[in-house]
Write the structure tokens for this entry.
Amino acid sequence: MTESRDWYKQAVFYQIWVRSFADGNGDGIGDLYGVYDKLEYVRSLGANAIWFNPLYPSPNADYGYDISDYCDIHPDYGDLDQFKKVLDKAHSLGMKVVMDLVVNHTSDEHPWFLESRKGRDNPYSDYYIWRDVPNNWKSLFEGDAWEYDSLRGQYYLHLFAKKQPDLNMDNPKVREEVKKILRFWLDLGIDGFREDVINFISKREGLPNGISFLPILGDMIHYKDGPHIHEYMKEFREVCDEYGAVQIGEGPMTTVGNALTYLSGEKKSLDMMFSFDHMTADCLYTEYMHRPFRLVKLKRALSKWQKRLGDRAWNTLYLENHDHPRVISRYGSEHYHRESGTALATAYLFLKGTPFIYQGQEIGMTNIRLSSIDRYVDVSSKNNYEKYHLKDDLKSRLRRIHISSRDSARTPMQWDDTRYAGFSEAKPWFYVNRNYKRINVKLQEEDKDSILNFYRKCIRIRQKSRTLVFGAYREYLPADPNVYVYERELNNIHYLIVVSFAPVKIPMPVPGALKGIPVQRVLTNYPALHKEGETLHLPFDFLHLQPYEAAMFRYRKAASASYDSVDKDSASGRVK
Ligand code: GLC
Ligand code: CA
């Protein structure tokens, strides 16, 4: 029997990048023993689902996204038995578990690739994309997208690092392998997949050259949302359908129009997709092309996806993951740490869609600033350092890495103020952020107004409200450069969310429709100034906001005839 998939609409996900989450066996590397012990913590946030970044055996050229065995657990993290224990415990606590599926490429140490290299007449020969003469594509992580293999005497395609050869999804045998992997994990009892760069798996026939003056972007037209993508996705969907498994695609550079083809209609093959538009409010496409943060750009991206997906499809909501620097350092302020951390939470947790919280985000972890590029470990940061802005002096190139590196998301989780931040008893595999004595779980547990407890409160409010899960979205003041104001509404129950992104006090003009209306304040991040639960009238002119002040107000439109008969916005929509 398959269970309804719809649970994901009312879920809040917590994302675990295991290597830096919690070390359970004292070797300095996070693992599934550590995860097992922290599941109650994850549940205490209100999360009811977990997404695990890749846990599989991997040489770690791209920290798990280069997989050498799809049906096992990396020995650093435990084994299949330990995984099963984590899975069972997560389920018993009421949390679903979603695994990362990485099938655009494998590791070059995967047995398929080792076989494929051997020549053109072995059974794995066409598992990868080999050519005598490469085209002009550039990889996203390391130089040209082609690497010569002397054993085979040909070039192989790698859209990411050299150690991540692309699979040839046009080969039906490869698709059968993918389906076997899906079944393997679904038979173990997991609840779904997050599908890595899934919109890249179908490349255009003949692999034509990209537009030469547009490196990477000009190649993508030949492999992003490629010609057979929906046929392949359909095959995978059928397997997931048998199990009622949720599918969440990662869709780098996908437009909202393309996303809708995966998320709705006849070709529907995904339940949700991670879009990237809103992650470029301070950069051009990728973080190493850094620009000042612009709230209007962020709001435009969020509103576009909110409106276009509307009732037709379901959004993911996120501000951080393992691929981006920490959001307080990007879109907030390290100086207004608590204020901006809680403001950012308010800005996104009440949008329409399923929220994802990345480990450490809930305590406001910030970027790490290492003293030399040699200390960074992420392949793409190193590549960016060596490839871009070469005219700049070394100091400013390193500053770009401080701003942009994925490594900032991958420092050990800050549990307390003891040595190594309570992550491990041994020296951790990677640097702990120096601010761990100030920013850690233990301190924030003790402070009712901490970022951590604010996240808990937001999730609690969200999960009790059908309006905040299912209600319509409407934005106010879209051109205002300082505040994000939006409303959610269902059956005449309205929530107005107001978030200042300004590091100074600002007056916010009250939009016409809201002038003077009676509201109830249900949330504030300035508890010393305001009381939650108080009723007030919105002013007719300006709402005066503190630096990074965030508030949520609840109200009904008195004009509605059914004012009193409307169902209470109750716990009926709560996730069990
Ligand atoms: C996705 C992953 C990222 C990885 C890349 C290649 O973008 O999230 O971490 O490096 O794909 O697999
Ligand atoms: Ca360990």
Q: What stands out?
A: The first helix runs from residue 32 to 44. The domain at 5-104+173-459 is CATH 3.20.20.80 (TIM Barrel). Residues 560-567, 570-576 have pLDDT under 50 and may be disordered.
